[in-house]
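> call design_seq(struct)
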């Protein structure tokens, strides 16, 4: 253990002693600690960098949840965002966008978006509303696009008609280069930050030949990028003056980031990303930082071999706030800051594909303080989660469902 870790642990110990009893993030309720929710054997014998980085104690929501399937038969929905009137925008992998009424029924199907390549993990991906949506009705989305040399993760925008039946003035504003002939790891979430710029996640396209590009600051693969509404590098980006880096670069060393969310209370950006076999991660993202892939990881190759030199820590590379082994496949995430589920305030909710549940992580002082699995008896691959204007939690699944999670 190096000096930095030792002093970090000492500080943590002091903080814990100072705080005394374990308190909630935004309320003073004591939280009962249960055994960790993960009971399967890990794929590796790697040890975490700090206590509570994986297999934290379990927690349980006290309120009785009211889980409703509002809708079935969506076609591989991928992204979900609440409109200010309570309706929903849903992207579908096949390239169409739907507007759903608050009860889950279809209000309209929006065609005519730029063509997607929906092979493999591609398609119409994440969706976000302009912070000024009430005035300008602008919608932003990511998708996998055919270009010369292969496919890219691209970002487009357009104006949603007042009747919510069409999107006009469509413009593709950004493409994460280079193109690659593959169908995996497009990343594809996007979220606005407090400065009104867009943060966009990409993937490293999965193959051994592209994997190292996650560490190459001159490419858009395996990154989080920060761009303006016009698709230009946003002002104030960390590598603006680095001739060897893309000016739109915000953070790097990511594998495949399919969840991005802001904690509105602290203005902190959080992401979730897929590890290989084991090593799915939650990261608190800071400008200019290196998140380690593929140099450090808590996972191994699908075939079983170590990745690179088999390292989990390295100077200059960030540790995940939390990781899972075995994988849960975190695909969408939202920071819960509404008032409805009072127990969840300040928690991170994560849609999981192979895990077939929604993870609730209690966050305290930037660390995880308890994990719960929600909706784990539904046997659904959860693709994305969002908070409704009513404060209830909503989720979409690969099997085509829209869930509403309220309280009884
Ligand atoms: Ca990492």
């Amino acid at each position: 253990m190096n000096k930095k870790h030792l002093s970090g642990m000492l500080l943590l110990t002091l903080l814990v002693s100072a705080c005394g009893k374990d308190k909630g993030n935004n309320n003073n309720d004591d939280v009962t600690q249960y055994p960790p929710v993960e009971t399967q054997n890990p794929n590796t014998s790697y040890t975490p960098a700090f206590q509570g980085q994986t297999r934290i104690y379990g927690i349980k929501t006290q309120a009785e949840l009211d889980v409703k399937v509002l809708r079935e038969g969506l076609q591989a929905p991928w992204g979900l965002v609440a409109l200010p009137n309570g309706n929903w925008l849903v992207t579908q992998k096949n390239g169409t966008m739907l507007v759903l009424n608050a009860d889950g029924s279809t209000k309209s199907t929006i065609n005519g978006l730029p063509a997607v390549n929906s092979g493999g993990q591609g398609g119409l991906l994440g969706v976000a509303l302009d912070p000024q949506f009430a005035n300008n009705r602008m919608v932003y989305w990511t998708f996998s696009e055919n270009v010369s040399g292969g496919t890219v993760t691209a970002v487009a925008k357009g104006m949603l008609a007042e009747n919510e039946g069409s999107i006009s003035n469509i413009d593709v504003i950004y493409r994460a280069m280079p193109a690659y002939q593959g169908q995996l790891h497009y990343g594809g979430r996007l979220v606005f930050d407090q400065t009104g710029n867009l943060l966009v996640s990409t993937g490293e396209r999965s193959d051994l030949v592209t994997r190292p590009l996650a560490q190459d600051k001159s490419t858009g693969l395996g990154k989080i990028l920060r761009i303006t509404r016009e698709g230009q590098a946003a002002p104030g980006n960390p590598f603006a003056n680095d001739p060897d880096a893309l000016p739109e670069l915000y953070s790097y060393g990511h594998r495949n980031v399919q969840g991005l969310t802001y904690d509105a209370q602290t203005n902190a950006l959080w992401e979730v990303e897929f590890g290989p076999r084991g090593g799915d991660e939650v990261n608190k993202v800071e400008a200019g930082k290196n998140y380690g892939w593929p140099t450090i990881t808590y996972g191994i190759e699908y075939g079983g071999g170590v990745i690179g030199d088999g390292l989990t820590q390295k100077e200059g590379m960030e540790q995940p706030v939390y990781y899972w082994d075995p994988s849960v496949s975190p695909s969408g995430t939202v920071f819960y800051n509404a008032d409805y589920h009072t127990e969840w305030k300040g928690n991170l909710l994560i849609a999981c594909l192979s895990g077939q549940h929604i993870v609730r992580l209690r966050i305290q002082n930037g660390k995880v303080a308890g994990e719960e699995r929600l909706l784990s008896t539904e046997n659904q691959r959860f693709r994305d989660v969002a908070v409704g204007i009513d404060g209830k939690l909503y989720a979409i699944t690969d099997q085509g469902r829209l869930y509403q999670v309220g309280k009884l």
